[in-house]
Amino acid sequence: MESNKPIGWYLKEADKRITAFLEDEFSDLSISRYQWMIMQRIATAGSIDTWQYFQELKAHITVQQYGEIIQSMTERGWISVSGEDQRVFTAAGEEAYQQIGQLQQERNARMLHGISEEEYKLMLSVLNRIIENMSQ
């Protein structure tokens, strides 16, 4: 692959390929990348504020797509509403998260094959600085 394209091209291409990889990998589990992201956030924080979390994803999906994702996770019995628009795991959701998480660790290792922990941390550091620079 050439290395003389603008950084935006690499960022978009990496995101496109990560999404395609994860969608393909998750298809046998009937979940999407964004469902997994929601599950990860709930697991980390204990809950998500439905509208507030959408603000983090809105550059990537529409409000309609987000609503459909939330609805599908609710219909599967994985999440429920707790309090004012807070989404939390049900027992089934927690179990699904644990099972999918094990598979995701294996798949993540394949995606990051050949990238050291130091390289990964450096990449995140550089991307964070770019984001911060563009936020000023």
From TrEMBL:
It comes from Chitinophaga agri. This is MarR family transcriptional regulator. Gene3D superfamilies: Winged helix-like DNA-binding domain superfamily/Winged helix DNA-binding domain (1.10.10.10).
